[in-house]
Amino acid sequence: MFSWYATEARKKRRAELRKPPKFILAFFSTRTMIKLFKVKEKQRELAENASGGPPVKKQSAGELRLHKDISELNLPKSCTIQFPNGKDDLMNFEVTIRPDDGYYLGGTFLFSFQVSPIYPHEAPKVKCKTKVYHPNIDLEGNVCLNILREDWKPVLNINTVIYGLYHLFTEPNYEDPLNHEAAAVLRDNPKMFESNVRRAMSGGYVGQTFFPRCI
């Protein structure tokens, strides 16, 4: 009786020794899953390209998020968005702002947006293409807007940025300037600032600087 149990125990131990360790099974299981995933991904790409057209370009996470942002835009009539490179290049676009209130009433201001593939973890790069006399926009088109710098967070979106730009025209801020001369005039003499803005938008000189007409 004891001999039979001992024999069975030895057989069981030998069978266990022949089995691969559990971590090896897990390793091969993971490798198999990765291979299957790659095969399915390749099959999907082949199916998408089966029509004979050009290969379908994979969209980055930034493009997918930007597409969502654009589809959910809720802008005032004074702000419009354009895609000069067509629908295949959503990452570079333009926004036109026509303020309907404040110092810049009646002006037309064009901004370019360049969006990173890692958006929204990086703020879009924004430049003002219209030369403007403004305390928060310098003569090279750089824009001083806190949400484009240290206050940017991934929960913000393109709609937020456009509204921020719009409010720069309705409420220019002399406390955080890029054009220090314009900021000083706004702070010390708002009437003169208003006169300078109208002269610049009409196409004329403010000091030694010429501004093309944008009104």
Automatic annotation (TrEMBL):
SMART domains: UBCc (SM00212). It comes from the Eukaryota. GO terms for molecular function: ATP binding; NEDD8 transferase activity. Pathway: Protein modification; protein neddylation. It holds the Pfam family UQ_con. The keyword Nucleotide-binding applies. Residues 61-206 form the UBC core domain. The active site is at C144. The keyword Translocase does not apply. InterPro entries: UBC (IPR000608), UBQ-conjugating_AS (IPR023313), UBQ-conjugating_enzyme/RWD (IPR016135). Belongs to the ubiquitin-conjugating enzyme family. PANTHER family: UBIQUITIN-CONJUGATING ENZYME E2. This is UBC core domain-containing protein. It comes from Clitoria ternatea.
